[in-house]
Amino acid sequence: MNRAQRLLLDIVRPSPDFSGLSLDPEDLDALRACALKHRLFMLLYSRLEKKHANKSDDILASFLKANETLYLTGAARSAVQEAAEAGVKTLLGEHGIECLVIKGNAISRQIYEAGYFRVSSDIDILIREEDIFRADDLLRSSGYLREEQSALAFRARRLHHAVYFDPAGHAVECHWNFGIPGFFDLSSAEIWQEVIFEDGVPARLSQEMTIILLLMHHYMHFFRDLWVLVDILHALSRYGESIDQEVFGRRLLKIGLVRTSIIALDQITDLWGEAAIGDLNQLTQSLKIRAVPRYLLYYFRINMEQEAFTQSRMDRFFARLALDRLSVMAGSFMKIFLPGPKVIMAYYGDNRHWILPYNYCRFILWRLRDGGRD
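The structure assignment produced for this chain is given below.
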């Protein structure tokens, strides 16, 4: 790991220690490039701005001035996204469809206590599973375009979200779950039981459910993106002492997130050291009832040289091995090519049983062409 990578990790961790930290222009240029690669520039800039407050440091002041436009551009993008989020929420709410914003600015305010510490590429909205088709009809009749060509009934049975583009071109992901439902034992109803509603405050997820969201998000990104891991680190630091860690560990076991949690904690330890999870002893002890093979921990070590959103087919394969239960693991491979009959019927919009063999052949050929992606 080079100096810029180590400096970035030190600066974006919770409660960084800036005492004795000296940065020259080469350090700052390398930090900027590294932060942009890992989608952490907004957090880096905010931290360096805080370090510079009320101090005389011409080199750091020059860096902040030179990159102010880039930071403000990111903040402006987040503000525009917030306006688009409000538009989706108003549209759905006016028609009796309850929703809330997850990830993006909402997560930033929850775990970083600021709205623009991270920039999201899309808008993530959570709806109830029973509202999938009503929301789809409403969005499409209001000028939103659904990205996927596959039938919504197929996605509703097999996946966890649908992607739309609003009239201004913003990508909006409508989620009814955080991850592929067949992989994890967490229902839409269970998620909504932990949505907190307070007067004058936007609806939000509970502390435990926020961590669960982030862990499942990390899994869905095949454990590769440093910015997601930084979110998990900050959430654990912020909520670790206020949740019942032993009870939470049992809950992760029930959902099927033990291996995911152990991989994330191993990545955190590898990058920031044991001290980064020092207050999570009860949680780590409760998770050790299910061992994770060393090859998985080694395979999913964060590669600081890798760009964000860089995943491979091998990552998809190994991510399935990171599922907790052998039956779910085996089923996840089988369902790539042989999902249940209702899924095939939904995908082709054809409920005739006699044509199922033909549609199964079509589905298998499609899977072979697209490499078995979900």
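Interim note for the steering committee: The beta strands are 99-102, 123-127, 145-146, 161-165, 171-175, 195-198, 201-205. Residues 147 and 354 are 31 Å apart (CA to CA).
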